[in-house]
Amino acid sequence: MSIIENNANKKIEFNFFNEIKESKTYAQLFPNREIGLAIIYLYEQITEDNFIDKQFTEKDIHNAFVKIFKPQIRHQTEDYSGYIYELQEYFLDYDQETQKYVFKDYAYKFCEHAKTTLEGAFSPTKIKVLCNDIISLLKMVKDDDIESLQNWLEIHYKNFEPKLREQIDFLEKQIANSVEQLKKDSDFSELKFIDVLRGVENSLDNAKEQNKELRSAYEQTKVIRTLLEKRRIDNPYINDLISDVNSFISYTNIRLNTIDKKLERIQPRIRQLFTALNRPRFNSKVQKFTRYVLDNSTIEYIEGRKEIIFPNQLQAPKIHLDVPSFTILKKDIELFPSKPRKVQIYKQNNSLMKKNQEKVESKISQQKKVMDWETFILSEIELGQKVNLSQMFFKILNTEDDVQVAISALYNVIRTVRNNNKISVLMNNELEKNSKFKDITLWKMEVQKRQ
Fold first, then answer.
1. Which of 156 and 91 is assigned the larger pLDDT?
2. pLDDT averaged over the chain?
3. At CB < 8 A and 24+ separation, what contacts does 386-393 make?
4. pTM for the model
């Protein structure tokens, strides 16, 4: 959310949805199909250097409209002029001196985003380079340089985030296209269908490798989160930006896990199709081979027994095997008694046992303290008292001198009351500090039973 300050230094909140839902604004940002296609047609002409200095005339725009509207109803010049007037808000800029038009930045982004989405240029290596670059920039920001950190969050990271999101979208689209290809081509002949299956499987194997590469690049974002967590910032706005970074990193991990699961579900089914298609062919080949062997084999008497003579010098399987004779010697236990085994005696390590016992007792004592404080806080809430959990945290820490007891007690209380409709949990952006524990800062949290 961007915030603008007026002359009276009053903060005015910009509401994106309220602004864009205005019919005129929405239509100017997202023109109808024919006008949008005309814009894209001009964009293609610009990229192919058909216009000098990327400038074009009103006639060029009219030609684009004629090309798009040609199969449909006839449009008058006045209609085209009205379209051009609307497009000058976000798409076109007019130079009175040269009487020529150029694309505004929004027009380039409008066309480039659509083109990039359709092309789906997957490049995890590019993302990895971008990750390394923004990490290097973040490391250069000093701990006390809030302004530089804000610039990094608002400019460098915000430019990187959509590129990573874009790569994930490309990868999902590639998987969807492979499955769609399989659906379209399922009516082909058996031979052709197997070729299609092989192509789809190769495509999904490639997507799996690309997912691994993208996940490798994603690991770099964890470095960003670690570097940001090391900084202790008291600025609520900066903290909100850092929270957005952490949320996006979690979102990215969820998307990549979803892609993993899709690949795990699809690939076994393709292999099952391979098996189902190949089994009749395999059975047919076995049947033909068996028929050939039976038709071309003869039976002869060799040493008084019938033997099958297979064609083309195929060796007959050996059905009867001579059983070898073995001489078994039994060991007499009385004549050859076993040697007695030495009994291993293990000495107890009293020092280690005492140490482990102290650890267990300490853990039990710590858990008891957590339960006592949790019971105390819940009883205060039940009596209708307003409990400041942040101050209670420092009180527990000061009494027990154990940060784990304080953390566990507050966590258990919050987990108990958060789904209780009779208890309200309030949290604001005020920071709770304690002079004795200067390195610990908490958001102000209050809990009270509703009347």
1. 91
2. 78
3. 386/446, 386/447, 386/448, 387/446, 387/447, 387/448, 388/432, 388/444, 388/445, 388/446, 389/413, 389/414, 389/445, 389/446, 389/447, 390/432, 390/442, 390/443, 390/444, 390/445, 391/432, 393/432, 393/442
4. 0.42
